[in-house]
Amino acid sequence: MELIADILLASGALGAGFYCFVLGRRLNRFNDLEKGVGGAVAVLSAQVDDLNKTLTAAQEAANQSASTLTALTERAENSAQKLELQMASLHDIPNTPPPPPEAPAKAASAEVPPKPSEPMFTRHRVGGSA
Predict the structure, then answer these.
(1) pLDDT at 89 over 90
(2) Domain carrying residue 20
(3) Is 26 a domain residue?
(4) Within 91-128, where are the H helices?
(5) Torsion sign (Cα): 108, 109, 114, 117
(6) What pLDDT digit, counting tens, does each position of 1-12 carry?
(7) Residue 47 CA neighbour count, 13 Å, CB half
(8) For residue 118, what is the DSSP state?
(9) For position 93, what pLDDT does the model report?
(10) 3-state class of 120 per DSSP?
């Protein structure tokens, strides 16, 4: 009876050893860095690192653009305030035209400006019907 128990115990141990051997080979293939899931995990990890670097660079660029836009907006608001003040000061100017500049004596005698009621240029029709 002991002999049968020893044979069964030895066969069980051999079966368990063979099972562990097969399982170890499968686990090695599963974790292989080129073909198995380990390779896929390594590739995905590298892609995550690249995406994190890209995201960081994009955030820095967005922050820089936001600060530049803020500065430009402040400049535009300051310019708008200055323009509003200038427009308000234009309302204080009278609507009468300024007096004409005084011309030198020689130029005044040579050219006589037309009277404001007369047109500056006139057209004369030569012999035709109206």
Answers:
(1) no
(2) 7-92
(3) yes
(4) 105-110
(5) positive
(6) 889 999 999 999
(7) 6
(8) S
(9) 74
(10) coil
